[in-house]
Amino acid sequence: MTSEEEVAELFCCGICEDLMLAPITLVCCGRSFCKECLRLWIKTNAQQGGIPRCPGGCTKKVPFRLPQHSIALRKAMEQLVPERLANRIKEAAEEEIDETDCLGGFKAWGDIAASRDILYGSSIIVRQGSPGIVLGNCDDGCHLTVKFDEREDGSELCVNVVPEALMLPLPGGFRLHQKVVALYELLLNSDMKVPLGSVGHIIGSLGGDRVTVLFEPAKLLFGDHSIPEYPVSVNIREVAAQRLLVGGFSIAQRVQASMSLVVGNRVVVHAGCRGTVLAEFSDTRLTVVFETETEESSPSCFNVLPLEILPWCDLPAHLPAGSPVRALQHLMSPCAILVHAGTKGTILGGVDPALVFVAFENGPAVAAAVSTLEQLSDEKESEAEEKLLEKSETVAPDIGSSDLSSIDVEPPSDEETPNSATEAGNNGFACAVSTPINSARVTAVLSAD
Ligand SMILES: [Zn+2]
Ligand SMILES: [Zn+2]
């Protein structure tokens, strides 16, 4: 039978050599210590100018943000050595010196951020907005010892700073000067608004759930006129960190449907229909509002896969939407649908300055380089048609050998959601960006022209 003494030894802290209080298990070697012992160990080592290493002797660095204490260890002690634990808690409460209040009203082990750039000599060692953790007051009585998450000089040592250089972290995990984007159209008053997708940077916080954002000048609308940049207090849920979404799209980006979107057996959004990215719906889908021309005129929101949309931009001046064009060379889609040279089509929209989205007759809608298209005018049409028909006979038979096999063909996915059930290839509208094939041969065709 094991004595209570022996059991108590199992729960002994390697620093204070007593029963562990709020036991924390370190990930470096799995040894456990009292939370307060670890904090004192970290603070003492850091204030002596070192990098705190594991008190268990494994020599690994100890994290400044300690893990949660172990509930299993605490419950085991409550079960196995209840009296010793009760005594230990009582002793600790009597000894306790309250050292959590620090200069400037900050709390020891609390999260903070740098309220300004922190300099050492003439170089910045901590950027304004950098997050960190307060270890406690410095012995000099006017500085606090802070461990910043990152230092500009790469050092892992703590920094002694005056309280004026610190601030409480901003709500929502935002950082000072972080670039953010408006997730909604923000109405400031009856005639001032910040449009959806406006970009700005965070300049401060008014407490609670609000941050102050300086939006870029042109984006803040006063009626129809833009006004100079102006700080706006927004709720943290009205903005998001600016970043690329799934598929490389961004919030408020103008897009177009890259294929007809089908729900059930009804086409709800036609290929080429313009829309705006509203949000990231999931890891794989984006919420897009499409400008569909329906009678009920309600906005059509769909959660689409990135391959179901293309970026949208203004068309080149000589190729307005609806203009008839003809493919000058064979075009290849990722779904292996071929658009033969000479096929006529209609411009739907622009993708980027060199790429337009075209609906080809009896075939797929394809994003094609402007240089692979010829604009059709009435008088030119019949003449060009004859020439291309002539040539296509010599070109067509050879396609589909080595050129095709080098292109990755992705089968249409069977994934379905209640929001958007679309199927690539279902009705011949399937496709993204085309790849012109066999350029040498195409050059030959063009030069023959
Ligand atoms: Zn201890
Ligand atoms: Zn260790």
UniProtKB/TrEMBL annotation:
<dbReference type="InterPro" id="IPR013083">
    <property type="entry name" value="Znf_RING/FYVE/PHD"/>
</dbReference>
<dbReference type="InterPro" id="IPR018957">
    <property type="entry name" value="Znf_C3HC4_RING-type"/>
</dbReference>
<protein>
    <recommendedName>
        <fullName>RING-type domain-containing protein</fullName>
    </recommendedName>
</protein>
<keyword id="KW-0862">Zinc</keyword>
<dbReference type="InterPro" id="IPR001841">
    <property type="entry name" value="Znf_RING"/>
</dbReference>
<feature type="domain" description="RING-type">
    <location>
        <begin position="13"/>
        <end position="55"/>
    </location>
</feature>
<keyword id="KW-0863">Zinc-finger</keyword>
<feature type="region of interest" description="Disordered">
    <location>
        <begin position="378"/>
        <end position="428"/>
    </location>
</feature>
<dbReference type="Pfam" id="PF00097">
    <property type="entry name" value="zf-C3HC4"/>
</dbReference>
<keyword id="KW-0479">Metal-binding</keyword>
